[in-house]
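Q: For a teaching handout, I want to show students what a protein-ligand complex looks like in token form. Below are the inputs, and the small molecule is magnesium ion. Please produce the holo structure.
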Amino acid sequence: MTAEISVKELKGVGDKNAALLAKLGIFTVRDLLEYYPRAYDIFGLPENIAELREGTVAAIESIVPARPSVVKTPRYLIVSMNASDPTGTIKLVWYNTPFIASQLKTGMRFVFRGRVIRKRNELILAQPVIFTREAYIRKLSELQPVYPLTKGVTNNLLLKLVKEALTLVRADEDPLPAAARKQYDLIRYKDALQNIHFPLSKENCIDAHKRLAFDEFVRFSALVRTMKENRKIEVNNYRITDFSACEQLIASLPYKLTGAQKKVYAEICRDLSSDTLMSRMIQGDVGSGKTVVAMLAILACVKQGYQACIMAPTDVLAKQHYEDFTKQLTPFGIKTELLTGALTAAQKRKAHESIKAHECDVIVGTHALIQDSVEYDKLALAVIDEQHRFGVNQREAIREKGDHPHILAMSATPIPRSLAIILYGDLDLSIIDEMPANRLPIKNCVVGTGYRPTAYNFIKKQAAEGHQAYVICPMVEESEMTEAENVIDYTDSMRAAIADESVNIEFLHGKMKPAEKNAIMNDFSSGKIDVLVSTTVVEVGVNVPNATVMMVENAERFGLAQLHQLRGRVGRGSAQSYCIFIKGSDSKEIDERLDILVKYRDGMQVAENDLRLRGPGDFFGTRQSGELVFKIADIYSDADVLKAATEYAGSMTREELLCFSRTQTNNWII
Ligand code: ADP
Ligand code: MG
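A: Here is the structure, written as tokens, with magnesium ion included.
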């Protein structure tokens, strides 16, 4: 019996599907079972065409009036037909699925279900799934799992594979003993897996969620405990005593440090000069100025002859830090090196050599910093920026790099202190709870899609005044087109709508080559680009103080924490900034939720009110994304489960903890 069975053992997974699944991070049967649905679809009765609302997923019923039209463009093959009912007509459109045409025989009646979107100012039903009336009626009250997809992997494929994978889980083995399940009112492990993918009811799904979140928290808590126990022995071999260069840097800044920054800087100085190694987490809202504090710590270490590194979650952010650090630290005779996946093999080799030979003092990079091939020379400090984007394991990996350096982690995730202490038990906590004084509060508005032309005009005016704007496209859910195509499409229509050559609109998406991304980000930073249309790639840490507008399309599809992060990209300079949240569909719940962003400026308050509104255990709404590394648990809405799991993990012996993680990977049948 082996713990991790490859997905290739499943019927229907050959090399091709295995490669596609790998793109979703699914390599083993266990990965597949833990690939939880993003949401559950509830099929509603077909609606009247005249009453369809943009942004919603809806079903309509219609006869195929004539042979569908098939049009080829360089990028797509588009099949379309007009559907009608007594209330109106709507165009149905399929992209790159030519076989659809042969299914649509004139005179046949079908139910079509897809997303209502706006294209060239008319509503269309995009990529609808086709059902016979009987088949549709059978689906009516079922909860259908909706998985995050990638090109080539359909929801149906995942559904089929998960069903098969579930047959490999033994019902009689459970990492939690019956007594613990009873005490914390938890269902069995296998039932939880079954019900999270294929719930028979909402309640059913809530129970499954609770059980799986509990397990995740226990595992997390166990890890934190082990780290804490290991930590006591860590002696500070890199004692820093001279902070005079830091004082010089502070004096040379174009602004004064805030009281909170000074406080945290003092805490860091104390750590660096003490007997034990530093393990500190700085928590501070977006834009609170964490980078400069990290830079001070780095400067102190390298001035004493050591190396220091800073790891960022994206190439774009690493590049930006690199430029910032080079500019600020070169006057101190310090050499900064960049190490990211975007470098060519030759550049990487050169960077590796320079690091090993200690020709550079500060190394800025991404995950590339923790690869085996990187050898540091006297690495005294590792800074992890946006640490919630890295796993605990990566945090550990950087600790193991060099010879146990000081660790400084930074995060903008607003977590109440009480929770942070549980979650980051291995780290001391510093909080930057004050914003630089030169900031004007960001002006927010939540508006419908009808406001789009006004927003475009506003952006045009801001650009004319020399400011810049971000526009965030929604993520594409259906396989209607890829994320990249969507961003390009949006950019084209925005260019057409703005119709002004002097406004330079460019786009950025996750599938672009790192070099292309960097070029675009550079041009945006330097002001060559006025409007940057992108996916949420910019969410993380990017700093362009001249940007004054953040416009988010389909804001209702994002979590509030994520929207707050996006908002943090503007309001970084002294000019007035604006946030325009466009909602693609209308409902009281959506209004209430987005209203929180208008009412509260502080990330912590946003999180707390979001939780109050959603209520514990509500995960049918938009899931908070980007929080730590949990696949299913949500530290806000599952706060009660977190407390229970931490209590339970605390009562386990070391052997039980080990056994827990072992049985969780061992109860698969080959
Ligand atoms: P974050 O905490 O989100 O990482 P950054 O460190 O990127 O924020 O800082 C955001 C912006 O604020 C930067 O342009 C930085 O130069 C500026 N900044 C940092 N500290 C101060 C301060 N005390 N006063 C004014 N501006 C500051
Ligand atoms: Mg930052």
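A: Two things your students might notice: The pocket of magnesium ion (ligand 2) is lined by residues 290-291, 385, 541 (CB under 6 Å). Residues 616-627, 663-670 have pLDDT under 50 and may be disordered.
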